[in-house]
C-alpha cells in the first residue's frame, strides 16, 4: 500500500517509522502513536499493526460463543446498565440446564470456546458453576472462559480444577482516581491481585480497558496497555465506552471510533502475541466496526448465543446489537474469507503456550 507523505515533514514521518521499528515501545512512544491524527499516519499505524498480528498470531480468527446467563449484579459501577441501583432493568437468570443446552448449540455451530458471562451474581454458588463447567466439558470438546467478576480465590481454585481454562476480568482503567470514581465497592489493587492470582494458578487470563471514560487521557490509555503487558495477559480487550441511559453516565458521549481503533492497533504492536477481540461494542459505534477491528490487529470475534428471550436484557450499554447467532456466524465466515483470513477450528488457546 503506497502512502503519500504530503502532510508531514520528512523528519516527523521518519520519527513515526523509527518508533514502529522499535522492538519495545516506551510510554512516550505509545502516547505519540495514540495521538496520531492525520489519515496517512493512522493508515501506516494500522497496516503495521496488521503485519504484527500476522507475524505473531497468523491469519486465524478465533470465535468465542458467549452465554450471558444472568444480569443480576451486586456491583454498582456507575457506567454499567447492569448496576445494582438500576431498578428499571428487568432481571433474569438462566437455569443451569438451559446454560448447558446453549453450550451444546455453540459447540454444534463449530465454535470451540464457550464464554460464561454474568454480572457479579452470588446466586450461582461455587458448586453451581462447577456443575456447569463439568457438564459442558463432558458434553463438548471446548475451552471454557469465565467472566463472572471478582469471586473468591477458593472459587477460582475449584473452577480451575473442574476444567475451566480462562478467566476474563477487565481492569477497566489503570488510573486509580478514575477507577475509584467508577466503583463504590471494588478497589483497583484488589482487582489486579485477582488477575495475578488467576494467572498464578494456571488460568489463561484476560483483562483490558474501557476507552472514552470521563477525565481519561491518552496517557491513561498508554498506562492501560502497559499494565496488560505487566500482567502478562493472554487476552486483552480494548472496548469503547458507550453510555447507558439507566446510569449516571447517561449524558457522557461515546468513545471515538478512531481512538478505539488506534488503541487496538498500538496494543497489538506492544503486546504482540495476545488475543485481541473485535468487540460487539465496535458494531454499535459503526456498522463496519468489527471488520475495522479485525483490520487493525484483532484476531478474536465473540458471537452472542444468549437465548433470545434474555438477550435484550443484558444491557451494559445502549443500542447493543442483537442478531441470530447461527446466521451471524455464517456472515462472519464470509467476511473473514473475503479478508483473506480463516476461521480457526481449534480451541484458540493462549499464543504464549
Give a structural overview.
There is one protein chain. The chain has about 350 residues and is α/β, with parallel strands linked by helices. It contains 14 helices and nine strands. Helix 3 crosses helix 10, helix 4 packs parallel to helix 5 (about 125-140) and helix 9 (about 220-230) packs parallel to helix 10 (about 255-270). The model is unreliable at about 1-10 (pLDDT under 50).
Number of strands: 9
User: What is the radius of gyration computed over CA atoms, rounded to a whole number of angstroms?
Assistant: 20 Å
Mean model confidence by pLDDT: 94
Largest sheet: 6 strands, parallel
Q: How many DSSP helices?
A: 14
What is the N-to-C order of secondary-structure elements (H for helix, E for strand)?
A: HHHEEHEHEHEHHEHEHHHEHHE
Q: Terminal Cα separation, in Å?
A: 33 Å
- Strand arrangement in the largest pleated sheet: 2-3-4-5-6-7
Structural class: alpha/beta
In terms of per-residue confidence, which ranges show pLDDT below 50 for 5 or more consecutive residues? 1-8
Instruction: Name the quaternary structure.
Output: single chain
Anisotropy-based shape: globular
Strand fraction: 5-15%
Helix content: 40-55%
Secondary-structure map:
Elements: H1 10-20, H2 27-34, H3 39-57, E1 60-63, E2 65-70, H4 96-108, E3 113-118, H5 126-139, E4 143-147, H6 153-162, E5 166-168, H7 176-182, H8 188-200, E6 204-211, H9 218-230, E7 235-240, H10 257-271, H11 280-285, H12 289-295, E8 300-301, H13 308-311, H14 325-338, E9 342-343
Parallel strand pairs: 1-8, 1-9, 2-3, 3-4, 4-5, 5-6, 6-7
Amino acid at each position: 500500500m503506497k502512502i503519500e507523505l504530503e502532510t508531514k515533514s520528512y523528519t516527523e514521518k521518519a520519527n513515526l517509522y523509527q518508533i514502529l521499528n522499535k522492538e519495545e515501545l516506551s510510554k512516550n512512544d505509545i502516547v505519540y502513536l495514540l495521538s496520531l491524527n492525520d489519515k496517512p499516519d493512522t493508515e501506516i499505524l494500522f497496516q503495521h499493526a496488521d503485519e504484527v498480528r500476522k507475524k505473531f498470531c497468523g491469519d486465524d480468527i478465533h470465535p468465542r460463543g458467549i452465554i450471558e446467563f444472568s444480569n443480576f449484579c451486586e456491583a454498582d459501577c456507575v457506567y454499567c446498565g447492569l448496576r445494582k441501583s438500576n431498578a428499571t432493568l428487568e432481571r433474569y437468570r438462566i437455569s443451569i440446564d438451559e446454560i448447558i443446552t446453549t453450550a451444546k448449540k455453540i459447540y454444534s455451530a463449530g465454535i470451540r470456546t464457550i464464554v460464561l458471562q454474568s454480572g457479579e451474581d452470588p446466586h450461582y454458588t461455587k458448586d453451581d458453576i462447577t456443575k456447569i463447567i463439568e457438564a459442558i466439558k463432558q458434553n463438548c470438546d471446548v475451552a471454557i472462559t469465565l467472566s463472572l467478576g471478582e469471586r473468591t480465590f477458593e472459587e477460582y481454585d475449584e473452577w480451575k480444577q473442574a476444567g475451566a481454562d480462562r478467566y476474563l476480568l477487565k481492569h477497566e482503567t489503570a488510573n486509580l482516581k478514575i477507577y475509584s470514581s467508577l466503583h463504590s465497592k471494588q478497589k483497583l489493587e484488589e482487582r489486579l491481585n485477582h488477575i495475578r492470582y488467576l494467572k498464578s494458578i494456571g488460568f489463561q487470563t484476560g483483562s483490558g480497558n474501557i476507552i472514552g471514560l470521563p477525565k481519561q487521557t491518552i496517557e491513561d490509555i498508554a498506562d492501560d496497555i502497559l499494565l496488560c503487558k505487566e500482567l502478562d495477559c493472554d487476552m486483552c480487550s480494548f472496548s469503547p465506552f458507550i453510555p447507558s441511559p439507566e446510569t449516571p453516565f447517561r449524558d457522557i458521549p461515546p468513545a471515538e471510533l478512531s481512538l478505539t481503533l488506534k488503541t487496538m492497533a498500538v496494543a497489538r504492536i506492544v503486546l504482540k502475541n495476545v488475543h485481541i477481540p473485535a468487540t460487539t461494542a465496535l458494531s454499535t459505534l459503526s456498522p463496519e466496526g468489527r471488520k475495522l477491528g479485525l483490520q487493525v490487529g484483532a484476531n478474536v470475534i465473540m458471537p452472542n448465543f444468549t437465548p433470545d428471550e434474555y438477550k435484550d436484557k443484558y444491557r451494559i450499554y445502549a443500542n447493543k446489537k442483537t442478531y441470530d447467532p447461527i446466521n451471524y456466524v455464517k456472515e462472519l465466515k464470509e467476511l473473514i474469507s473475503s479478508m483473506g483470513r480463516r476461521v480457526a477450528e481449534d480451541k484458540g488457546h493462549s499464543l504464549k503456550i
